[in-house]
Records
---
Amino acid sequence: MAIAKAERLMNLALCLLGTRRPLSKRELRSSIEAYLEAGSDDSFNRMFERDKDDLRELGLVIETVENLDGETGYLARRDSNRLPPIQLDAEEAAALGLAAKVWQQARLAGAASGALQKLRAAGMPEAEDSYDIPHSALEPRIPVHEAAFEPLMLACRDRRPVVFEYRKGNAARPETRHVEPWTLECWRGHWYLAGWDRDRGAERVFRLSRITGKVRSRAGAFTAPVPDVSTVRETVESWAGETATRSARIRLRTDCGYPLRARALSVRELGDGWDELEIPYGHGLDAWLVEFGPDVVVLEPADLRADVVDRLRAVAKG
């Protein structure tokens, strides 16, 4: 069935792209074998409307035109469905190559690889294999260990409600959650889902590692509007108590700690391979700073410095 639908969509797209004038439903039905096999006019109309919506969702710009006789016709102009020439320099091409490597162990690996091949065929410059070296020092990865990732990714893409069992951090047993999934985001090595919790009638964020069992899709449309931007990271930070309430001063080795530099309120060169940064300070910052080991020295406040020292001593003791 999936192959038959894909073939039908392809034939419809070719008809709409290949015509110089709008084609009516009647003409499209007589040109596409699958439509000829439709049992009735109602069956054909439902099939055609679904196919037209699917093509538009895939990005095809389909115009609806009414002729002098009042009959509605459809076409997809080539100039409206053609991307402008893609101009990338070597550095931009290398960045895309590195981004594609992120998904080598996930479902998106095929799509990422195929996109790179198309760009290269279109003339994207080949960098000096800085991203094709098998043992390159720079190997970005986003870990995807949770079984819930793939079904949730597809549900977010297709706007399908889902049901799953979810165990809170302080709960002994999991609870059934009915969710309209919006987006997935990786933060601090963990994947989170943002969506509308139907049972609670509010936006919620779920950590994928706490989802137990299978994620099951449900029929029907979303009942709540999908926001243009879902602030997953900010929500998780807030729930974890990591919202910054003041600032801290740290010393950071030059060319190290780029995540810290991205959050810095100010940066001052100290010389001798060190910089001084002012960064937002909230609950959980001490645990994050410890991850950078000897590349970070806390200057103030004193309580943050003491917390980092205590953590480092605990690590040293094993």
---
Amino acid sequence: MPELPEVEALKDFLGGRLVGRELVRVLPVAISVLKTYDPPLTALEGRTVTAVARHGKFLDIDAGGLHLVTHLARAGWLQWKDRLPDGPPKPGKGPLALRVALETGEGFDLTEAGTTKKLAVYVVHDPGDVPGIARLGPDPLADTFDEGAFAALLDGERRQIKGALRDQKLIAGVGNAYSDEVLHAARMSPFKLAATLTPDDVHTLYEALRTTLTEAVERSRGVAAGRLKAEKKSGLRVHGRTGEPCPVCGDTIREVSFSDSSLQYCPTCQTGGKPLADRRMSRLLK
């Protein structure tokens, strides 16, 4: 799933290609991606893009006060085309969900792989009208998000810290991958209860959060949309690297599996050398 650093890079990428350009066609291919119907997609046609913004993991294309907002979900992506194919796209079983065409013949496709369709597109007068944006917590890279603000968010939080970091209502933009990376950088167990964090723990976690995300944004800056997935994967130290050596200590990176996701961690760096319980894997071994 694209997270804050990749969506930030897509925002910059699109900003350099869309601002000042006219939208001539916005063509839905998979109707299921549309989550709003008034204003219609056709209301965007003929408008000039004035800005591109990011809200958490949401992309926001501002076309003269009318906003095309999208959330790429787990398997969605944006593919830029220097020249779009002639003729309208044909609905079918392929990954294409939406096509946006400029007056120059350039444009982009929104695609979604797999059978679980979660990609979402909204057309609104105000991004705050999108329920997911209205519920977002603060952006962890905002100038106002200092250590005090972070500590206040965690005060009274009784969940495991992994789940807290992923909660978009608590902190916007961090998902499964970067929560693993942040916790590895902080040398902290993903199962540690947020309520047990000491002031020193909060300081360490805050520094790891800001540093990890800032470095990921810098790695992604200027990378073309088509190469962002590979760039993300190459920069991850533990997430998605089960069985590989930890780049810090050399221990084997381990995994805990859930019904629809998994987390990765280093036992030596994060859990005092002890493997975390993986109930799903234990059941499979019985």
